[in-house]
Amino acid sequence: MPGESIKIIAENRKARHEYFVEEAFETGVVLKGTEVKSLRLGKINLQDSYAAIEEGELYLFQMHISPYEQGNRYNVDAKRPRKLLMHKNEIRRLFGKVKQKGLTLVPLKIYFKHGKVKLELALARGKKMYDKRDAEAEKDAKRNMERALRDRSRGE
């Protein structure tokens, strides 16, 4: 949409290497006190984090938000589980898909959208080792083709 102000805070680049992303969703994140200030400073790590549905609610685990330096007693645990905001029928649909073999919920990126913290959550299937090798070989071949085309166009 025109005029959308989105500022990416952090991306989980490893997720696209480790998983086949089948679907992506935008969720809100429930944060406490100084966590937003830490996010504005970019003090976040999405690696090794994952989402799960517990008692009909969606939670994000292992996301590390460093404590805000001037936060003193208002800081909270850096790796505490954080509730994700999504419509109940979407959560039910996700729960049905996650119960299928091999599907998991992985955060792709976290960003500010119109002053609110949003998280892009992916429904993903884990890659096997040979899938990763195939993807790497494909990437190398594409890079070599582009290099050859670029060199050929320079020579003329």
Layout of SSEs?
Blueprint: E1 6-11, H1 13-18, E2 19-29, H2 35-40, E3 44-45, E4 50-54, E5 57-61, E6 64-65, E7 82-85, H3 88-98, E8 103-113, E9 116-126, H4 129-155
Antiparallel strand pairs: 1-8, 2-7, 2-9, 3-6, 4-5, 5-7, 8-9
Structure description:
The protein is an alpha+beta fold and 156 residues long. 32% of the residues lie in helices and 37% in strands. The protein has four helices and nine strands, in the order βαβαβββββαββα. A seven-stranded antiparallel β-sheet has the order 1-8-9-2-7-5-4. A two-stranded antiparallel sheet has the order 3-6. Strand 8 and strand 9 form a beta hairpin. 19% of the residues are buried.
What does the radius of gyration come to? 19 Å
Tell me the strand percentage band.
35-45%
Q: Could you tell me the mean pLDDT? A: 86
In total, the number of domains comes to 1
Low-confidence stretches: none
Largest sheet: 7 strands, antiparallel
